[in-house]
Amino acid sequence: MNVLSINQLSMDLPTASGPRRVIHEVTLDVGEGEAVGLVGESGAGKSMTARAVIRLVPRGARTQGDITFNGTSVLSMGSATLRAYRRRDVAMIFQDPRAAINPVRRIGDFLVESLIDRGDSEASALMVVTEILESVGITDVTRRLRQYPHELSGGLLQRVMIAAALAIEPKLLLADEPTTALDVTTQSDVMVNLDTQRRVRGLAMIFVTHDLELASAVCDRIAVMYAGFLVEDSPAEGLHRQALHPYTAALLASRPSVNARERRLVAIPGRPLSAFEVEEGCAFASRCPFAQERCRVERPLLRTVGRGRVACHRTEELQGQLDANKMREDARG
Amino acid sequence: MTTTSAPDKIKGTTRRLLSRSPTSVWRDPVVIVSSSFIFLLVCVAIFAPLIARQNPNTANILAGNQSPSSAHWLGTDSFGEDLFSRLVYGARLSLLGPAMIIVIATSFGTVLAIAAAWFGGVFDQVVSRVADILFAFPGLILAMLSVAMFGPGLIAPVIALSISYTPYLMRVIRAEAIRQRNLPYIAACYVEGLPARTICRRHLLPNVGPLLLVQATLSFGYALVDLAAISYLGLGVQSPTPEWGLMVSTGQSSILAGYPQESLFAGAMIVLTVVAFNLLGDRLASRRGMDRV
User: Fold this and answer.
1) CB of B182 within 8 Å of any CB in chain A?
2) How many domains would you assign to chain A?
3) Helix (H) or strand (E) holding B35
4) Do B192 and A168 make contact, defined as CB atoms within 8 angstroms?
5) A191, B108, B186, B251: which one has the fewest Cβ atoms less than 10 Å from its Cβ?
6) How far, in Å, CA of B105 to CA of B110, rounded?
7) Which of A273, A47, A152, A132 is nearest to B184 (CA)?
């Protein structure tokens, strides 16, 4: 049973020179209790896709396709239904907790607000919030509740935001690069915490990140986006050995390895395309070492291959060559 | 030797940083002095009957234009009315007028600004263009028009000036509200499923609050001067009601006769009050890290 189905989702944003496409016909399902990592470079459309799930899109954005949550179409919800959906069913964790928490209100007010809005009494909301803060590893809760956001460290504040997301007992969690704004040591703490809580509560999650390794550590499936296209959707396990798309393999290869001392990092030649720059053919063709004439002319559609789905004409031929370690060695020559 | 050693420099920098650090606003002497002065004025206005030593409207033509004495601390005007008492009573209308203007203009301005920032699009365009049109219309001319329609007094100029101050406040607050509206914490409120009303009232409004305070304080000074000017022109409250702007005007004829005290003291009160409000507004503004608009 899928909690969330994104079906052929496209989005255009208005610009001075006419609408520009930022998402190209993305199709993605999230099962109950399943964590899906949405990975890609900046501008690949991963955040936009996640935001489209709660209709948090820029003014004037035009969406096509469909998003259904437990069988209900999200894109055609009226405002009251939409609010109820946001209030009950999904929660979002933002990238920068400093910016995403109202600076002039106390932590406690921030946390209980949505619960009271939902109809809880103040006392029961406080109890729920206290319990959840403790479960995400915050000590001295009574004091924290009375503090203002600027009095908390970034890591602590991100935990508060995670607590706020968990407090409404959603079925789906949208985490938009929740650790990017934190420093490295707190990153892992916060991530472990988020992962544990998610598993304990059996929540489905869309985890948006640049970090393929991190995503494969905490997610069941990885969806890779490039220039607004979903290019691959595979189980997280074993992605290293058998990526389906050359882009995924190249991304994995460009990560420094912990085991070997790197003299030079492997890079993907060229620069990432913006979604609107893609003409015909495969979006990645201009940078793909395996691209052929067909890739430049005919756009590959997402199709099921083995354990995952991929948008590449040559996946089958390339099996064995899309091993990250091997690519790294090849590049090192 | 004029060179300073590195540690000295560092110490100096630290001290500068510390002095600018966001400690309490009440440690700034300018804030203390100006706000105490304003507080004192408000007290004087409220408790005028207890402070004034004589009835401000008891005329005694025979004792006109007296110099300051123990009977009349600041002397008397040409009608022999006690100037100290008139200044004390004058604080009432002189402060009430601008206060009304600021309350009305900030209320309307804030509501319009937040609505414009929230809805954007056509609504924002309409509100902003109407504000532009009102901007082109001088407040004093509007006040004269208003007096011509409603007759002189306090209310007509207050209405007119409220109308002319609203777009000014609206525009400043709108810019800030738009900035705040695009910050992620507002998006987070959306995601929580909070109704727009709640987001505006509980999240957007408190965050434009500091700017609101600064603008209201600064505008108070301007409004006081504008109202005094209207009274001076004889379009505001009418003699013998004590009001500072009016006192500057009625004292004018005595200046030539060598008795400047009425105009002088009333003018001084206006200047002091406006300076106090401007200094306070200025300091609050610099604390917010922004320049006066």
Assistant:
1) no
2) 2
3) helix B29-46
4) yes
5) B108
6) 8
7) A47
Q: Do A88 and B209 lie within an 8 Å CB cutoff?
A: no
Confidence of residue A262 (pLDDT cuts 50, 70, 90): low
In A193-295 the beta strands, taken as DSSP E runs, fall at: 204-209, 221-226, 229-235
Q: Which residues of B touch A94 (CB under 8 A)?
A: 184, 187-188
Interface contact B187-A56, CB threshold 8 A: yes
Residue type (1 letter), A140: D
Domain match, A19 and A119 both: yes
Q: Is the pLDDT of residue A301 over 60?
A: yes
- Which residues in chain A touch residue B125, judged by CB atoms under 8 angstroms apart? none
CB atoms B207 and A100 under 8 Å: no
Same domain, A148 and A296: no
Partner residue opposite B191 with nearest CB, options A91, A105, A113: A91
In B, residues 94-123, which contact A (CB 8 Å cutoff)? 120-121
Question: Is pLDDT larger for residue A321 or for residue B275?
Answer: B275
DSSP B204: I
How do strand A2-13 and strand A62-69 relate by DSSP bridges? antiparallel
Q: Mind listing the pLDDT tens digit for each residue in A153-192? A: 988 999 999 999 999 899 999 999 998 888 888 888 889 9
CATH number at residue A37: 3.40.50.300
Find residue A12's DSSP bridge partners: A21, A62
Is 0.80 surpassed by the pTM of this model?
A: no
Q: What residues make up the domain containing A246?
A: 241-332
Question: Do A59 and B188 make contact, defined as CB atoms within 8 angstroms?
Answer: no
> pLDDT tens digits, residue range A203-238?
999 999 988 888 988 999 999 999 999 999 999 987
- 10-residue block means of pLDDT along chain B (293 residues)? 47 44 71 94 93 84 82 83 92 94 96 94 94 88 89 91 93 93 89 88 91 93 92 88 91 87 93 95 78 42
Q: Is A236 among the domain residues?
A: no
Question: What is the per-residue pLDDT for A174?
Answer: 94
Q: Are residues A265 and A317 in the same domain?
A: yes
Residues of B in contact with A59 (CB under 8 A): 120-121
pLDDT of B52 reads: 86
Q: How many residues does chain B have?
A: 293
Which segments within chain B are labelled E, that is strand?
A: none
Cα angle for residues A172, A195, A254 (degrees, 5° grid): 105
CB contact under 8 A, A168 and B198: no
Chain B neighbors of A102, CB-CB under 8 A: 185, 189, 203, 206-207
For residue B183 the two structure tokens come to 């910050």
